[in-house]
Amino acid sequence: MFGRRKKNDSVKDGGAAEQVDGVRADEPDDADELDTAKPRRLNLPPAPRPDGPWDVDEVPGNPADGRVDLGGILVPGVEGMELRVEVAGDAIVAATVVLGDSAVQLQAFAAPKKEGIWGEVRDEIASGITQQGGIIDEVEGPLGWELRAQVPVPLPDGQTGAQLVRFVGVDGPRWFLRGVISGQGAVRPESAGVLEQIFRETVVLRGDGPMAPRDPIVLKLPNDAQMVPDGVQTAEDQESSRFSGGMGQLERGPEITEVR
């Protein structure tokens, strides 16, 4: 099942339908232009990816076999899953796989040809969450280095609670794939095996056209998708980071259904 959610108007600002404030959208990407006083990670070459995610040129046969074709990414199909797409303006820039009481949001970005950006992106996400009063733990998990975060969220009674979220990422050839795991897959990481496998088996189609580093790779709807009418979720009044991920993936928006 597919769901469609409204995002901010700018594709560059579109990390998810609900955002944690992190890096400014107009922050310079060139390392020489960054504030040298601010601690930052070196952008090393992308690490090997023996278990994925995959570039389209690395997959033998037809990479769309067994996967949902969203244009910029091909997402593995899993029985019982629901797939929701998220939009920035008129462009689809992210997809969220919901499986039971867990979810993983997937979003691909352009990246420099010879440098990985996941280390620096982790710093940006961590900085934004801690500035809001959240808690960050950087660990080496099944998908490599990740952030396990307690993100402040408002509760119905006006109090502030915390939502557990896992931020994962992998650098590929001229692209970066970010995942945001929420629900029980974040509360109990040992239960997230299927979501982690979906992330590993995702295929990225960066394309050969010029793109600025960190620009989202735009997605498209599958040809056979059917829209289910429902209310539109918006995030017009929320500030955003391109990489911070959505904190409300399990909320239902207008949907496009496909039973897998």
Question: Would you spell out the secondary-structure blueprint of this structure?
Answer:
Blueprint: E1 2-5, E2 54-55, E3 67-69, E4 73-76, E5 82-88, E6 91-99, E7 102-110, H1 118-131, E8 135-141, E9 144-154, E10 160-172, E11 175-183, H2 184-187, H3 193-201, E12 203-204, E13 226-228, E14 255-257
Parallel strand pairs: 1-5, 2-12
Antiparallel strand pairs: 1-14, 3-4, 4-12, 5-6, 6-7, 7-11, 8-9, 9-10, 10-11, 13-14
Computed over alpha carbons, the radius of gyration is 17 Å
Average of per-residue pLDDT values: 77
Q: Shape from CA axes?
A: globular
| Order of strands in the sheet with most strands | 8-9-10-11-7-6-5-1-14-13
C-alpha termini separation: 8 Å
Q: Would you write up a description of this structure?
A:
Strands 8-9-10-11-7-6-5-1-14-13 form a ten-stranded mixed beta sheet, with helices on both faces. It has a four-stranded mixed beta sheet with strand order 2-12-4-3. It contains three helices and 14 strands. The protein is mainly beta and 260 residues long. The protein is globular.
Give a quick set of tags describing it.
260 residues, 10% helix, disordered C terminus
In short:
The chain is mainly beta and 260 residues long. Helices cover 10% and strands 33% of the residues.
